[in-house]
Amino acid sequence: MSSLSANNSQPQPDSHVSIVTTHLLKFPHILHRHRVDIFLPPGYDSSPHQTYKVLYVNDGQDMARLLMRETLEKLYRLQQLEPIIVVAIHASHDRVHDYGVVGIPDAHNRGSKAHEYEQFVLERLLIYMEHHYRIRKGAPNTAISGVSLGGLSAIDLAWRNPTLFGKVGVFSGSFWWRTDDTDWRAQQASRIMHKVVRESQKREGLKFWFQAGTADETSDRDDNGVIDAIQDTLELIDELELKGYRRDEEIVYVQVEGGKHDPETWSSVLPDFLKWAFAPE
């Protein structure tokens, strides 16, 4: 047997993900800076002519707990993910005001700065990425995601800007966000994202990925035996279907049995979301 035939194993693809950190001013007249961690795919520096799709992620400070780097590298090794750039936006000290639905604060005036956060993402961050990194522009090449309240923010940004974002992923989304806390009927009727979708036109081309866990919480405001986290997610999907979106084609729902409102649950399904959003072509 020759030495060549004795060593016929296939070389493993490069899977190393590098992280670049930058700080961007929220606005020229505001001193606060958002920290942004940029996850660059294998071969980024050695392939100067290649361009990449992009995933923007809210709550970027939690990427280590979500195992973002490890998950990306594993999927690259398995060749189950095309090379992408992940832009992880750290939440500010005003998280409960930055995140939410633009123009509609909740019953306790939370989410009051959602418009300012949208301006930062659209007018500062996206432009910065276009100028400094080799990204592919346009909705078909761009996704956004988030967990909990960051997930509510992500779907609001995508819904308001469908020419910029083509896919959105929401893990345990805070779809209970509401304008009236009087009683359970008022709470249910005033859920903000449900109302926004109900009173809007369909966003052609936009696709949705939702996750909820059966142990996300224990609250069941209408005592129907379904926790609010699941009910709110499923009823938002119902609103989307009424707009003409199709299950499995434009909407994916993943329910995690025993899944909690925590990074361990979200990291367990992160590979499913990434493969859905950026499967190799």
Automatic annotation (TrEMBL):
Coiled-coil regions, chain positions: none
Pfam family for this entry, one: Esterase
SUPFAM superfamilies named among the record's database cross-references: alpha/beta-Hydrolases
PANTHER family attached to this UniProt entry: ENTEROCHELIN ESTERASE-RELATED (PTHR48098), FERRI-BACILLIBACTIN ESTERASE BESA (PTHR48098:SF6)
Protein name in the entry: Esterase family protein
Native source species: Candidatus Chlorohelix allophototropha
Lineage start: Bacteria, Bacillati, Chloroflexota, Chloroflexia, Candidatus Chloroheliales
